[in-house]
């Protein structure tokens, strides 16, 4: 199942209390920074949920 990043809740890397923690935690490279925003690379996501569990803004969730 693919994740969704809510850009409004996220606010971008520079405004993130975790300073892009989702990108730092992802060992698969499924989230990368593009123009100060975290962007999903779905083919790399292995559903580990680390980004969901650790997002300080609760901006990442599972797609339905």
Automatic annotation (TrEMBL):
Pfam families: Fer4. GO terms for molecular function: oxidoreductase activity. SUPFAM superfamilies: 4Fe-4S ferredoxins. Residues 36-64 form the 4Fe-4S ferredoxin-type domain. It comes from the Archaea. Signal peptide: none annotated. This is 4Fe-4S ferredoxin. It comes from Methanobacterium formicicum (strain DSM 3637 / PP1).
